[in-house]
Amino acid sequence: MITSEPIGDWTWDVTSDEELRPFQAAEAAVTVWNVLESYGLAQPTGRVSVSARSADEARDVRVQAVGLPLAQDPLSPDTALSRAMTEVDSLEGEFVVGVRVECPGYWLESGVRHRAEKLFAIQVDIWKSSLLVVTLHTYADAWLTMDTRGREQPDIHAANAPRLAGALQGISRVFGVTPTPGAMNRHATPSAEGFEDPRIEGPAYTDSWGTFEVAERSRLLRSRIPDSEDEYEEITDHPVRYFTVRREGRTLVYVWASLGDDAAGYEPRTAAGEEAFRLGAAWLLRLRTAHGQGLAPLAALAWLAQSTPASQAGEIVEDTPQDAPSLDFLEELSGRY
């Protein structure tokens, strides 16, 4: 399963007797990215963000560049990352410098590679020119002996966990320190080699993905549109029908309607990354329009197929809707692949 919040993280604290320059934050982030790529865990694409804020006043932000493209050779002159770091380098005074890279990558399942647009995120911070802090976050449960729905997955673990362990060791060799695993969270417990085995003491929650991730995805989606009472129910215990929405050949979302009550909604394909959430606003607002017209959920689904939003929001690909035995089935489909 792919989550919108990290399943685990690891941090390397690197102190320096010499003054650290802001550009070294970018160099460290790219170094970690290269290690991940060497283990087949990151693709040579992605997005990077750069920030610089006063060390004495966090609200005093001097540089804020978000979602820059990560080029093949990101530290070469005239790339977006290099230009942003040059701007930070020109600042005078004490600053906290941050570089964050969101890394697309693949996990393996039954011999098939599945891509997630944010398999890992790398966060590098330089504090007052003397401390380099590198944190690696992961958003997949492919490294666990049990998935985040509480099911054992020995083959998936065997195919993926060694690559993560190798990458963590590789990053430690680069910086000369061992990682500090993040604390136990609602999904898993990180360790220096990857993750602890939840089969030994049991997971914190039997179905952490269903308990927390579904609610978090709904919160992220609805934060992008104004509040309204003119809409369908979000949940149902009945079977549902759904359409697949794709853009440029990639499945991004599923729009659905209940077969038994007044519920309809939108499930983002988490592996598609930010784009799936960004497109949600257009589809949710279209559902509100259908509700305002007094359409029953199944009629609203048919109306969506005939009256889709602008092409930037993707398009429905089926001529007729598909059947799912439950909303939970569709939620898992959207979170798994």
Class derived from helix and strand content: alpha+beta
The Cα radius of gyration reads 22 Å
Give the termini separation.
Answer: 8 Å
Q: State the strand order across the main sheet.
A: 3-2-4-5-6-1-7
Estimated helix fraction: 25-40%
Order of helix and strand elements from N to C terminus = EHEEHEEEHEEEHHEEEHHHEEH
Low-pLDDT runs: none
Number of strands: 14
> Mind describing the biggest β-sheet?
7 strands, antiparallel
- Which percent range describes the beta-strand content? 25-35%
Morphology call:
globular
Query: For the residues shown, what is the average pLDDT?
Result: 92
Count every helix, treating DSSP H or I runs of 4 or more residues as helices. 9
Structure description:
- This protein has 337 residues and is an alpha+beta fold.
- Helix content is 31%, strand content 29%.
- It contains 9 helices and 14 strands.
- It has helices spanning 23-38, 80-89, 154-175, 198-201, 208-222, 274-278, 280-292, 297-306, 327-336, and strands at 8-15, 47-54, 61-69, 95-109, 112-127, 131-138, 180-181, 190-191, 194-195, 240-247, 250-258, 264-268, 315-316, 322-324.
- The strands form 3 sheets. A 7-stranded antiparallel β-sheet has the order 3-2-4-5-6-1-7. Strands 10, 11, 12, 13 and 14 form a 5-stranded antiparallel β-sheet that branches.
- Strand 8 (190-191) and strand 9 (194-195) form a beta hairpin.
- Helix 1 packs antiparallel against helix 3 and helix 7 packs across helix 8 (297-306).
- It is globular, with a radius of gyration of 22 Å.
